[in-house]
Amino acid sequence: MSAGARSSGLLAPAERGKALFVVLAFAALALYPLAAGQFGIDLVTKIMIYAIFALSLELLVGTTGLVCFGHAALFGIGAYAVVKLSPEYEAGSVWWLLPASIGAASLYALFMGSLSLRTRGAYFIMVTLAFAQMAYYVVHDTPLGGGTDGIYLNVKPVVAVGGRTLLDLDDPKTFYGVTLACLALVFVFLAVLLRSRFGRALAGIKVNEQRMRATGFETYPYKLAAFVVSGALAGLAGFLFAVKDAYVNPELLSWHLSGSVLIMIILGGLGHLRGALIGAFAFALLQEFFKSEAIWGAFAKHWHLGLGLTIIACVALLPRGLVDVPGQWRARLTGRGAPGGAGSGAGA
Amino acid sequence: MDLATFLIQCLNSLQYGLLLFLVASGLTLIFGIMGVINLAHGSFYMIGAYMAFALAPVVEAAFGGGFFATMVVGVVLAVILGYVLEWAFFSFLYEREHLQQVLMTYGLILVFEELRSLIVGDDVHGVKPPEFLSGTIPLGEVMTYPVYRLFISGVCLLLAAGMWFVFTRTRLGMMIRAGASNREMVQSLGVDIKFLYRVVFAAGVAIAVLAGMVAAPVSSVYPNMGGQVLIICFVVVVIGGIGSIRGALLAALLIGVVDTFGKVVFPQAAGVLVYVLMALILLWKPDGLFKA
Fold first, then answer.
1. B100 touching A, CB under 8 A?
2. What is the pTM for the complete model shown?
């Protein structure tokens, strides 16, 4: 992918290593379907969707310092929008379902953000949870959402121009490609956004909101804009998820998923876009690893134990997340303390 | 709704609210005083409930049984558990960002649930209330109310009073309150703050475990019971104001009433009512009812 290659010209030499990592990661993802079987393609497609979701949350948590504990609602609304708006027995068009999905998630994000941004810190965490739970119960308990059983998407939407189908989303390899392209686009979009004036302002808000206001920034609109953009990206991830499985259920909006995606970005390392990527892959692959009966035999049933212990070990040994692994290695080799600049900004 | 039903629902909401208060008070203590967001707090409640189920036969063999003996053994084990956990997993987390604590305690939830599954299994169990509390008292002409539920409310009220006493009337409580408002200052005055934190954490764990043990006969014992309680307790803590015991009590009773009557009056919307309440209160008072 041209993601990092294009930006490496803009970067300081110290940043090149990170850009190289991202380029190599995307290249590996692009080549993966040539080697993988059905199961692998399906798994990595799912992980990439989670990665998009994680990136959307990283914009709020890692960049702006707003810990949202209700992000699954936006993901779920994006997913439900596709299924509810698709015609029942024929294929809907991606050209309007995708914007509708993203639009629905952004609208709810606007509602959720405009109210919850009045609170701060732990209170913000809980108010976002409250708004997510409201959405969850609407889907779960009212006829609108089809209850616990969820809803099937009978016909997947098509990507067509003038009646000619361009991409067959039913084909796993094609869908893999589409998901990868979305992931790359989201990554580049966020990378550019963070380098813009807007992104710098968000970073400033994370470090010291008071001072940002003193500098003359009206911080509320910035935070709200970040919330809505993040919601839109979560909606995109939800769209892809619903199209992939052709099925949605209320669990997509549950706080368990909000928690999992938060865990992904913390595990990967907050304050870095690639942390969200690494976190999504690490979390999902660890799950697969500990669930594997080939390795653990009958004990695979208790896969939570291994996952939990690994997470605890990560917290104890890698305070800055998995992105800091090279830094720790370097520190060990040169015998000096871990290099600074990993940006564990003052948690306000 | 006639008067007897109304009265029963009132007693139910009181009992539920007080139980929530017990779990939430530990959470708000650990959160408010030590600044740790402890997601694993619900697991302690779960552990308590399973102790009520699994310890009873063991205690019977060792001490000749008895409901209260089981509880005492459970609380002692809980204090030890809390003390060791604080030493092993939490003591190095205070200087870290909140989100690191979230990640750590999330890992602990997974470990606790899986250990529970390994040791006791995944079945749902019922726990019988002790003989002398299993009766009912008549309410009105046809309705009755189980004595055990009144007993739960009594235990909770007693503990709440005990907590109030320790906090406002003892030297320990004074040190804890001082430690909450300025850690460094208390430390430089010669108080062993590490030990103090360990005591607070162990007490929080013990209260949650006790709540689980007391609740087991009415709620039954099932996997993942901790997760449900955890979220609702966070709601209580936040509505009440983080770190405020008084706030937690009021918020827990409020939620008890809203949830219990919500289930009777609007069964379709019962789940969402509590969250609507929280959102409204926080939009009105962004720092909770009582700012600690």
1. yes
2. 0.84
